[in-house]
Amino acid sequence: MITVNQIAQLVNGTVMGDGDVPVKGLASYKYAEEGDATFVLSAEDLEAAAKSDTSCVITTEAVEGYPKTMLQVKDLKEAIVILYNAMREMKGPAKKGEIDPSASIAESAILGKNVAIGKNAVIGENTRIGDNASIGANCVIEKDVSIGNNTLLHPNIVVYDHVTIGNNVTIFSGTIIGADGFGFVPKGDKIYKVPQLCSVVIEDDVEIGANNCIDRGAFTDTVIGKGSKIDNLCQIAHNVKIGKNVLIAGMCGIAGSATIDDNTIFGAGVGVSDHTRVGKNVKVGAKSGITGVIHDNEVLFGYPARKVSDFKKLWGIETLMIKHYKKLKELILNMAKD
Amino acid sequence: MITVNQIAQLVNGTVMGDGDVPVKGLASYKYAEEGDATFVLSAEDLEAAAKSDTSCVITTEAVEGYPKTMLQVKDLKEAIVILYNAMREMKGPAKKGEIDPSASIAESAILGKNVAIGKNAVIGENTRIGDNASIGANCVIEKDVSIGNNTLLHPNIVVYDHVTIGNNVTIFSGTIIGADGFGFVPKGDKIYKVPQLCSVVIEDDVEIGANNCIDRGAFTDTVIGKGSKIDNLCQIAHNVKIGKNVLIAGMCGIAGSATIDDNTIFGAGVGVSDHTRVGKNVKVGAKSGITGVIHDNEVLFGYPARKVSDFKKLWGIETLMIKHYKKLKELILNMAKD
Amino acid sequence: MITVNQIAQLVNGTVMGDGDVPVKGLASYKYAEEGDATFVLSAEDLEAAAKSDTSCVITTEAVEGYPKTMLQVKDLKEAIVILYNAMREMKGPAKKGEIDPSASIAESAILGKNVAIGKNAVIGENTRIGDNASIGANCVIEKDVSIGNNTLLHPNIVVYDHVTIGNNVTIFSGTIIGADGFGFVPKGDKIYKVPQLCSVVIEDDVEIGANNCIDRGAFTDTVIGKGSKIDNLCQIAHNVKIGKNVLIAGMCGIAGSATIDDNTIFGAGVGVSDHTRVGKNVKVGAKSGITGVIHDNEVLFGYPARKVSDFKKLWGIETLMIKHYKKLKELILNMAKD
Question: Model-level pTM?
Answer without folding.
Answer: 0.97
